[in-house]
Amino acid sequence: GETEEVPLIRIASFEERQSLNSINRENQNRVLTVGAGIADGNNVTLVTREVQKALEGYELPKGVTLEMAGENETIMEAMGQLMQMAAMAILIIYLIMVIQFQSLLLPFIVMFTIPLAFTGGFLGLYICGMEVSVVSMIGFIMLAGIIVNNGIVLIDYINQLRLEGVERRDAIILAGRTRMRPILMTVLTTVLGLVFMALATGMGAEMMQPIAVVCIGGLLYATLMTLFVVPAMYDIMARKELKKVEVD
Which of 64, 72, 111, 122 is the S-S candidate for 60 at Cβ 3.0 to 4.6 Å? Predict the structure, then answer.
């Protein structure tokens, strides 16, 4: 029950070493953050990919894990959410067309215009030297809803002609000739309206330019291809005779 003072030198040794200025913890685990700035003209996602490649052969010490966070994490989460939104938008567009056409096949033919539009959007970004970003993804979602209008107008008129007794091939050719002008005029007015956004300058203009570039590229490319692809797909897939339903 007695106490006695013992010099620390008798039970411990002293050594001068470098230590951390501060210790940060997350979920009771030590965390060390390494940050870096991105030079002008570089992309956060591309730089992160290069860093990951450089660290592929590096063996981490036992108990140490590596995680990419910060701006890249925010961008990837936003891109994932936009991809889900795009998938939901395409599904809703398909269901609406199923209700309109009362068919599962005809909306599927119209949906061929969406990959064509996306191809045109990517070409537009490539020509303008822009990268696929969160803002440009919003343009792709908008494009999915805009471009199907041309296919709907074309296929609906083909069905009307077939119900009036016109042969399938003749109905396709006649519908293409008749609806070509309205389709081109609709696309042209939309593209001309977006040109001002694509060429805009000033504060905040660069944030909206990718949307306009994607929509313009997608509309121009998909419209030209729609006039060939949609009629061809209709001729291949819609061989079933249409019957006019009469209601007393």
Answer: 64
* Strands in 41-192 per DSSP E: none
For the stretch 74-81, contacts whose Cβ atoms lie closer than 8 Å and that sit 24 or more positions apart, written own/partner, are: 75/44, 75/45, 75/134, 76/45, 78/134, 79/134, 79/137
What does the pLDDT read at residue 34? Answer: 79
What pTM did the predictor assign?
0.69
Query: What per-residue confidence (pLDDT) applies to 183?
Result: 85
Instruction: Give φ, ψ of 31 to 5 degrees.
Output: -130, 130
How far is the C-alpha of 122 from the C-alpha of 82, rounded, in Å? 16
The 10 Å CB-count burial string (b at 16+, else e) for 226-243 is: bbebbbebbbeebeeebe
User: Tokens 């537009």 map to which residue?
Assistant: 124
**Which of 165, 178, 147, 151 has the alpha carbon at shortest distance from 243?**
165
